[in-house]
Structure formats: C-alpha cells, structure tokens
Amino acid sequence: MSDLQPARGTHDILPDEMRGHRRVIDTARAVAERYGYDEMATPIFEFSRVFKRTLGDTSDIVTKEMYSFTDKGGDEITLRPENTAGVARCFMSEGLAQNAPVRLFYAGPMFRYERPQKGRLRQFHQIGIENIGTPGALADIEVIATGAHILDALGVRDRTVLELNTLGDGESRDAYRAVLVEYLQTRIGELSGESRERLTRNPLRILDSKDEGDRRVVADAPIFSDYLNEASQAFFAEVREGLDALGIAYAINPRLVRGLDYYSHTAFEFTTEALGAQGAVMAGGRYDGLIGMMGGSPTPGVGWAAGIERLAMLCGDPPPARRPIAVVPVGDAARIPALTLSEGLRRAGFRVDMAAGGNLAKRMKRANKIAAVAAVILGEDELARGSATVRDLQSGTQEEAPLASLADRLARYR
RNA sequence: GUGGCUGUAGCUCAGCUGGUUAGAGCACCGGAUUGUGGAUCCGGGGGUCGUGGGUUCAAGUCCCAUCAGCCACCCCA
To answer: Which of A24, A165, A299, A362 could be joined to A256 by an S-S link, Cβ 3.0–4.6 Å?
Structure first.
C-alpha cells in the first residue's frame, strides 16, 4: 500500500481536479494574452547554480527546499522551485535581449521540499508572467493589473486583498539596511534566535517576523519609507497613482519584504483568508538586479507567480466535463454501422461514447451514467430505413432521423 | 525542520471501558426489464481496520515505531 501511494507532498490530479486547473490556466493565459503575453516554457530542471546564484545562499528555498541531485554525467541538477530564474536564464541564453522588452506567460509544475499542508505541496503548479526589459512604474502597474484582471475573470478577486510595498532602489535599501542593523544591534538581546541569525544574513526579514519579542523590537525600528531616496519615492508614487486610476484597491504593507538583493521597488501579494495559513495566492514584484546578477547585462524585469492549486481551491467546484452523445447499437448487425457512425460524428466535432456490452437497457443505463445529452440508437429496424433513433436524455423524447442528416439533427448537442 | 490531531470498503463515517464471522449510507455489479436510461424493489461483490513490531488467552480498540493527511509554526504559490 505505502509504496503505491504518491510520494509525500505530491498527488494525482484526476479529471475533475484537472478541469479546475485547466480553467485557471486557460483563463489566465487568455487574459495575459490581451496584455501582450505569449506562453512559453522552460525546462523543469536546471543546473543548480541557476537557482543558487539567483535565490541567494541564505534563502529558505536554497538552504532547505531544493530538490537537487547529481545526474549520471555528474551535473548538479535542481528541480525548479520557481520559474523566474529559469525565464531569466532563458532570456539570456536564447538571446531574447534582441527582442526586449518581452512579455512571457508560463504554467507548469514547481518543486519545493517542504512539509506538506493544505495548499502547500512538494510538487505544485504555478502560472506566472514576466515582463523583462521594461523599466518604468507603468510596467509594474500593468503587471499588477494583469493579475487583478485574471483574479476577476476567475471570480475570486473579492476574496483577495492586494498588499503592496516598495523595497526602493539599491541605494535606498543599502541606506536603510545600515540604519536598521545598527538599531537592531542595540536591542539584540530581545531578538529571537532566528532573528539574530538573520541580522547578518537577511536583516529585512526580521521586519516580517511573527515572534512577539521581535515584533516589539520592530515596532520601534526606523521606518523604511523614511530612507527612500527621491527616485524611489517617485516610483512608488507613480505605481500607486496608476493603481488608483485603474480602481485597483490595495493595502500598503510595510512588512511585505523580499529577502533578496535583486528585488527592488514594487513588491506585492494578493492574499486571501479563505485558504488557512497559506494565504498568498499571487505574489510578485520588480527584480531589476536579477539578470545582472546572473551575468547578463543589467536588464529590468517585473512579474508575478500564482499557485494554480490555491486559485483552483478558491474557485470552488470545477466546471463539469463536456457531455457526450451515446451511440447505442442494438444487435450484432448494428455493431460496425454504429462504429462508423460514431467515427463520423467525432469527425464532425461531437464527443461520442459508443456503448458496448450488455443489452439495450444496460447501454441506456450507461449512457445515463456518463451524463450523455442524447442517445443515438441504431438497430436493425433503423438500419433497414437508413436512419437512427435520437433520444434526448434530458426530456426523454425521441424521434427517428435519417443518417444522412444526423449531424445536423444533433447540432444542438454539440 | 518543530509541535499537535487524525488514518476502518471507491467516498462519508459507525464500531461503547480490548471479547464471537468488522457495520451503515452513498457508489459499484447483477436481476425484476433479451428495442429504451433516470425512480423503485430484490440480490451481490468488495476491507491484510495505513504499515511494521509489541503487550494480552484475545487488539480495529492499548503501547512503540514508521508512513501519509490535516492544523499551527516556519516559509511561501
């Protein structure tokens, strides 16, 4: 039994759930397309250094969540824990800088070695967009608007809140970090052990700590916005102005931080209360430093990623499957004619299920069970007349129709 | 990675302080109905009680371990 279970934190996506995923992906892709995004895909695994260099040596993802292994050729490989690094790598190795700015949409599985919970899996799926090569705040606004639009289209927007913050540019962040560390040093005794470690590696993260002692210390900490230089303030102001103009509500959350240096300016998250502890549904921001850090020529970028499972959960019951037409042969002589009829209807665009086995009653039962919209009954009587009986399984009414015009008769069931 | 809760049929669950062949509803299969489904009635199949060990005359029930899920922390999508 246990070795027949899917590995921890993974699960099979059966047709019902798959339709839920499909709805999220298809909706997102269609909306993103209106904003100029084209779908692409990067490999599911990359050389480990792509993520290590990109996510930093201190991030949780790199230190404890990567699925890494050495392949038979001795290469260090990692299953992608997120896709921005892969897209950035692709941007460079495929020479996309020639076409910059590029707008890319993706959907696919990601892998993180975490302790599973509802809405948190080891293999999960994300959709995301990346706008690479566009520097201004307008791009940030539009990226957020694309996300908001997708949440609208999925009908879940009213259950989410947009949290917004700015990380400023590098200069502002360096200035603030220095002041912050200086302040925290004076109260280091009150910090949690974890935060003491973060003090050297990742001090901004302390602002987001949920430890009570940390929070008391953080409450009196210098305020980041006081250290934003003029350019950073102007950038953030424009982002807010744009969101206001588009009627996209947001809540400024000064504790919304990103630990990594290549992030700058806009950071945002659409969160929800409806999913328990896993509240983040769509998260993103600006990563102007990323491509430079990976060895490319400095190129700005903005984007977000969203969890398909989480969005699908918010959406509720998946749409029902398309209802088929059941072709029901009666008697041996009808078998082959029913087969060719089925094939013809499929060529004409219908979803067709041909019942086999059992008597007519059994086949009708089956037709009912698979939620067929109609049954096309083909027996010797009909064959002799070159027709078929079409029974509407909703109303129970039926009529005979010539085979030649059957597809037209069935048109409303397509 | 830490702490807590849970694990009985495909699904939802019952099974009292350990005590005969482990039950129900739904679902599934067959029949009533060999050219007509949904309703009803009758019948049937299906469980190594998550797994492994231990205690006991006796374990679904108690103990330990392990696996998985869930909840919180952590982190995030």
So the answer is: A165
Per the structure, the residues numbered 110 to 129 in protein chain A that have their CB within 7 angstroms of any atom of strand B are: 112, 114-121, 124, 126
Q: For strand B, which residues in window 171-190 of chain A come within 7 Å by CB?
A: none
CA distance A141 to A159: 21
Domain ranges of chain A: 2-169+229-315, 325-413
| Tokens at A316, concatenated | 């509720």
Residues 203-242, chain A: which have Cβ under 7 A from strand B?
A: 205, 208-211
CATH assignment, A2-169+229-315? 3.30.930.10
The Å distance, CA of A5 to C1' of B22, is 25
**Percent of the residues in chain A that have a pLDDT greater than 70, as a whole number:** 97
Q: Is A130 (CB) below 7 Å from strand B?
A: no
With a threshold of 0.90, tell me whether the complex ipTM lies above it: no
The type of residue at A313 is M
Class of domain A325-413: alpha beta
Q: Is the peptide bond before A101 cis (omega within 30 degrees of 0)?
A: yes
Distance of A256 CA from B26 C1′ (whole Å):
47
Q: Determine contact, residues A78/A48, Cβ cutoff 8 Å.
A: yes
Give, in Å, how far the C1' of B57 lies from the CA of A383. Answer: 73
pLDDT of residue A409: 93
